[in-house]
Amino acid sequence: xxxxxxxxxxxxxxxxxxxxxxxxxxxxxxxxxxxxxxxxxxxxxxxxxxxxxxxxxxxxxxxxxxxxxxxxxxxxxxxxxxxxxxxxxxxxxxxxxxxxxxxxxxxxxxxxxxxxxxxxxxxxxxxxxxxxxxxxxxxxxxxxxxxxxxxxxxxxxxxxxxxxxxxxxxxxxxxxxxxxxxxxxxxxxxxxxxxxxx
Length: 198
Known about the structure:
By secondary structure, the protein is α+β, with helices and mostly antiparallel strands. The protein is 57% helix and 8% strand.
C-alpha cells in the first residue's frame, strides 16, 4: 500500500487526496499525518526536505512534491486522466496548476510572516509582495475561470481557494464572483473537495 504523509490543512496534500479520489486510487493509499516541525517525525527520513505531501511507495522509496506525486498517480491510473497527454491541453493544465500552487506558496509565506513571527518583527513589505501575487492570480482567474474537463490545474486552483478560505476567512470572495461560482460548481462535481476540507 502507498502511504501519503500529510497535514489536513495543507493545500498541496489536499490536491493529492482529491487527485487520488478522482483517479480511483484512494483505497490504495493510507493517509498518515506528519508533523513537519517535529525533528523526531520520520518525515525527515522519508523526504530530506521534511515537507508534505510525501508519498511513500511500496518499495519504501519516496516521491515529493505534490506535482511529482500527481504525475505519478496519473501514471499509475493509466495516464492522461488528470494530466492530459495532448501537448496543448497538458501545458494548459500544468500552467493552471502552477498558478494554483503559486497562490498557495504566497499565502503560506503570508501565514508564516503573520502567525509565526512576533508582531514587532513582521516585514510588511514582504507581506505586500506576496499579497500582490495572490491578487494578480485571482484577478486572472476571475477574468477566465478554469474551463473544460477537470484536470490537475482545476484541482490546484480549487485547493488554493480552499486554503484562502481556511486561513484568510474567504476575503477573496467579495471581488471574485465568477471564481466563487466556479468553485461552487467544482465542489458539486468533485465530492472529494468537501470531504478533504480541514
